[in-house]
Amino acid sequence: MCKLLGEDIEFFILTNNHDWHQDEPYAVPNDQWLVQDDFKVWYTSIMTLDLVDRLMKSVQPDVVYFNGIYSPKFHALPLIRLLTKGAASKLIVAPRGMLNSNAIALKSGKKKVLLATYRLLGIASKVLFHAASEHERLATQKVFSGAQIQVVSNVPALSSIGAVSTGRPEKAFVSVARISPVKNTLALLHCFEQVTADLHLIGGYDDEDYHQACQHIIQKRQYIQWTDGMSPAELETQLSSYRFFISMTSGENFGHAIIEALAAGCPVIISDQTPWNDIEEYGAGWMLPLNNQEAWVERIRTCQEMDDASYQKHSERARSYVSSKFDQVALREQYLELFTSED
User: Fold this and answer.
1) Second CATH level (architecture) for the domain 2-155+328-340
2) How many CA atoms lie within 13 A of 175 on its CB side?
3) How many CB atoms within 10 Å of residue 199?
4) What is the per-residue pLDDT across 214-269, written as a single tens digit (0 to 9) for each?
5) CATH topology for 171-325?
6) 2-155+328-340 and 171-325 share one CATH topology?
7) Nearest Cα to Cα of residue 131 among 338, 343, 328
8) Which pLDDT score is estimated for 97?
9) Fewer beta carbons under 10 A from the terminal one: N or C of the chain?
10) Which pTM does this prediction carry?
């Protein structure tokens, strides 16, 4: 987003000084504005409402953009503060799939209380919601009736578009997602218990019990590998070394990893709970019913047996699919409208 709009919009990003579910801070100066490429970023060691008030006063932003909706320190408390005090800035909230029914159902008690609080404060009339897809627009409308919603696709990292394919990769299947019930990791692993096929899981976890249940299967299968996260640059390099990307997600508002895999020429096997429901029409992958495990096992086997010529066609169509979906010029205009339009 910053690269796309950097010539027109000045971005100030407030974020943690450490990665999600990690304690060790990044090796960068904390608690000050740092200039990075197309934006300024503040890596905070302690997130407080006083800090939010101070930065709001010094920056005096025209727009405050919330990248999520549930985090107490980064979303809920600052947003409630701005809703109650009558913010001079335009407020935009990007739910990032957090308003999908399956996401609300996980640890639903606290979420429902928070959503009720937002409604009580009149969020529907005070905030512009940024939905990444029509599916997310409908989910947002269901939670916040009468909400102002603008649909603009996410900005994917597509530096690999146009890269020349070097043939059939040696590695088999890769899945990039945190180990989580929302991502349906355990069900995916059950499929690979029935098929002897190499699978590399890349991503952290946020539920220790669920993680341990998955590890119980991973440790029994030598052909299943798990890596606890990977840098974006390394991931981009890795994706092109796998033949197929697989995601059994139970809900996705966009799915950056899916698009990045396609851009790398990696055909995808995905559930019917993502925005990319036309993937088979393009020959770039396969969309399968989430609750039909037999269909997933059969597709994994079919992909294992695919000959090189057929694979090459699917790989080329994967790249073409992404190229056809993302017009950077049009996307830039849509984002400018999102940020600059009057409520």
Assistant:
1) 3-Layer(aba) Sandwich (3.40)
2) 28
3) 24
4) 999 999 999 999 998 888 778 888 888 999 999 999 888 788 899 999 999 999 99
5) Rossmann fold (3.40.50)
6) yes
7) 338
8) 86
9) C
10) 0.73
